[in-house]
Amino acid sequence: MSGLKKIVIRIGDVALEAELNQSQTSQMIWNALPLEGRGQNWGDEIYFRIPVDAPPENAVATVSKGDIAYWPPGNAFCIFYGPTPASEGDEIVPASPVNIIGQVTSDVEVLKDLKMPETVRVEKGM
Predict the structure, then answer these.
(1) pLDDT tens for residues 12-67?
(2) By CB count within 10 A, which of 15, 69, 89, 115 is most buried?
(3) Beta partners for residue 76, in sequence order
(4) CA 92 – CA 81 distance, rounded (Å)
(5) DSSP assignment, residue 2?
């Protein structure tokens, strides 16, 4: 078995495929799946609170387009698809450092057309 775990992120009519990395945080989230909550926007980030309480783990202050992350201060699952209010230029900056837990393997551009709040569901993929 490869180390990457496949998940599906459903937001409204959109389904994104993604892979979780091998971090302890992503393992905690995998064990908690399926997860569901009301997604909110913060710039080009969708986030929602989840029942996982993980400490910072190799937390980073900038992320890449398509990164999925866990935000420790808010116990939140985050999907980044562009600049946030904290960004300067094209850099993608979370509100504070996040634990990268994986990467969306689908095209994240479709998220730009979604209107929040919307229910976000994260489940194990095939």
Answers:
(1) 889 999 999 999 999 999 999 999 999 999 999 999 999 999 999 999 999 999 99
(2) 69
(3) 49, 71
(4) 8
(5) -
- Asked, as a colleague might, if the bond just before 51 is cis with ω within 30 of 0, I would say no
The residue extents of the domains of the chain are 5-124
pLDDT band at 1 (very low <50, low <70, confident <90, very high): very low
At 99, which amino acid appears?
N
What's the rounded Cα separation, in Å, for the pair 92 and 72?
Answer: 18
Burial class (CB in 10 A: 0-12, 13-18, 19+), 4: middle
Opening angle at CA 24, ends 21 and 27, nearest 5: 65
Q: Is the CB of residue 104 less than 8 Å from the CB of residue 16?
A: yes
Which of 31, 114, 34, 32 shows the shortest CA–CA distance to 79? Answer: 114
- Cα distance between residue 37 and residue 57, in whole Å: 23
- Tell me which fold the domain 5-124 belongs to: Cyclophilin (2.40.100)
